[in-house]
Design a protein that fits this description.
The complex is a heterodimer of chains A (about 170) and B (about 290).
Chain A: H1 2-19, H2 21-24, H3 34-46, H4 48-66, H5 72-85, H6 97-119, H7 127-171
Helix pairs in contact in A: 1-3, 1-4, 3-4, 3-5, 3-6, 3-7, 4-5, 5-6, 6-7
Chain B: H1 11-31, H2 38-109, E1 120-128, E2 136-139, E3 152-155, E4 158-166, E5 171-175, E6 182-187, E7 193-197, H3 200-206, E8 209-215, E9 226-229, E10 241-250, E11 256-263, E12 272-276
Antiparallel strand pairs in B: 1-2, 1-12, 2-5, 3-4, 3-12, 4-5, 6-7, 6-9, 7-8, 8-11, 9-10, 10-11
The chains are: A mainly alpha (about 170), B alpha+beta (about 290).
Chain lengths: ~170, ~290
């Protein structure tokens, strides 16, 4: 319960900051993707199942507010959370290389999917342009934000896990 | 660490179920044009107040910073504006005369006022699309304030976009520079119709959007021409300024023209918009769009 509430809060804060504050901080109308950072980090910290559900609900939030059809972002984010979950066994909290690579890959694949389904299929074929002017800047910006946000999420997760362990040992 | 009960479904299958569920929902919401319904309302009540709060804080900070910065420019600007006021007053007088003449002529022709003054409600922009691909944003007025889907949104004198979805206390607006937006427009002086479609790439490159399929006589429409919403559009009210033609060229079919439009609205600094509460009459018998 405590975990669910915390995760909900993290997602809400990321979502709200992403569509208000970071729109104001955008460079050349590019803003970072905080939700991807949250979904991806919970994916590799907590495993496939949690990653998937967290992704699903964050995506649903985007769908409700900004999507043209309900379900598209939910699906994309769910898959991103799920795939990140495969790396749980290789994940060590002290090492930032793997999280950075995973989050970067997630952001890139998210943008590729959005490009393919929502732009390419409508006949916008200038992939090179979109790659250089949308995906790459967003990737760089997201990674910059990741360096701060990731450690925050990591600390919160560690705190939660230690609380859970304590209460589990108390009862069992 | 992991406690797995015997009856839990493996994650693989949950993912599969979720996928199927999402695909079905996508199809349903696409074909039936449904939106979240109660989900919209719930999300609206939770998130819109928070967005409002952040926006108020943000606006306050920006205002403080702006005040300091602008104080220096104000004196200079004041002088320039005074000169402009003088010039505009002169212009206004001429225009008043012309208006008077026009009114007389209209009365003669028993024409109604062409553009009735629409009823409008002001709303504040409280959040824009989280991603970088589309240009939709949220405003802080919704069904409770009488806003419905397909209402036109303007700012200043120009067209901003159209309401595509509503919640009880918020509404979603698709701006005309959104990549998926299409507006039926026409050249103001010649009433030649065209399609204005938003374009992410050209908007990023040089702040213009595109128009296509303009049928006009040889070089009738030139750069600087005003494009307004056309009378055949089934969602946009007639005669709202879209922008100014910034480049135009003849298509390879030699019949139509296409080019770029500079929008009349500054989308980078959009803070407050007006929602036109009158909707285009939709009961009229119409041919194709």
């Amino acid at each position: 319960m405590r975990r669910k509430l915390t995760v909900f809060l993290i997602i809400s804060i990321c979502f709200i900051l992403q569509c208000t504050l970071f729109q104001a901080f955008s460079f050349a109308s590019i803003s970072p993707n905080l939700l991807i950072v949250a979904v991806s980090s919970f994916g590799f910290m907590r495993g496939r199942k949690e990653g998937m559900w967290i992704g699903f609900f964050s995506g649903l939030l985007l769908d409700l507010f900004f999507g043209s059809v309900i379900g598209f972002y939910a699906l994309v984010y769910a898959y991103i959370g799920y795939v990140n979950g495969f790396f749980r066994k290789r994940f060590f909290p002290d090492d930032i290389k793997l999280p950075l690579i995973l989050i970067a890959a997630s952001d890139l694949s998210y943008n590729m999917l959005v490009y393919f389904f929502l732009f390419f299929l409508r006949g916008r074929f200038r992939f090179g342009y979109y790659f250089l002017h949308i995906m790459l800047p967003e990737l760089v910006y997201t990674i910059l934000v990741t360096i701060v946000l990731y450690f925050l999420i990591l600390r919160i997760n560690q705190k939660l896990e230690s609380i859970e362990k304590r209460s589990a040992s108390k009862f069992v | 660490m992991k406690r797995k009960s015997k009856h839990s479904i493996p994650t693989k299958y949950t993912l599969l179920i979720l996928t199927i569920f999402c695909v079905i929902v996508m199809f349903v919401s696409f074909t039936l044009n449904l939106s979240g319904g109660p989900l919209n309302a719930a999300a609206g009540y939770i998130f819109v107040p928070m967005q409002n709060g952040i926006n108020q804080v943000g606006t306050w900070i920006v205002n403080q910073a702006d005040e300091l910065a602008s104080l220096r420019n104000v004196m200079q600007e004041n002088k320039e504006l005074q000169a402009e006021v003088d010039k505009l007053t002169q212009d206004l007088n001429t225009i008043k005369l012309e208006q008077y003449e026009l009114n007389n002529l209209r009365e003669l022709m028993e024409l109604d006022q062409k553009y009735p003054s629409y009823e409008k409600v002001a709303a504040r922009v409280i959040g824009s699309d989280g991603g970088n691909w589309f240009n939709t944003f949220l405003i802080d007025k919704g069904e409770n304030d009488g806003i419905e889907k397909d209402m036109n949104v303007i700012a200043g004198s120009g067209l901003v976009g159209i309401v595509i979805d509503t919640g009880p206390n918020y509404a979603k607006v698709r701006s005309i520079i959104d990549d998926a937006s299409n507006v039926s427009g026409m050249a103001l002086s010649t009433a030649d119709r065209c399609i204005v479609n938003g374009n992410l790439a050209s908007m990023n490159e040089n702040q213009v959007i595109q128009f296509t399929d303009l049928k006009c006589d040889d070089n009738d429409v030139k750069t600087g021409e005003q494009l307004v919403t056309s009378h055949i559009s089934d969602k946009y009210l007639e005669g709202i300024l879209i922008g100014y033609v910034s480049a135009i060229k003849r298509d390879s079919n030699n019949l139509t023209y296409s080019g770029t439009v500079t929008p009349a609205v500054d989308f980078q600094h959009l803070q407050e918009v007006l929602v036109v509460l009158d909707k285009k009459q939709s009961g009229n018998p119409r041919g194709n769009k």
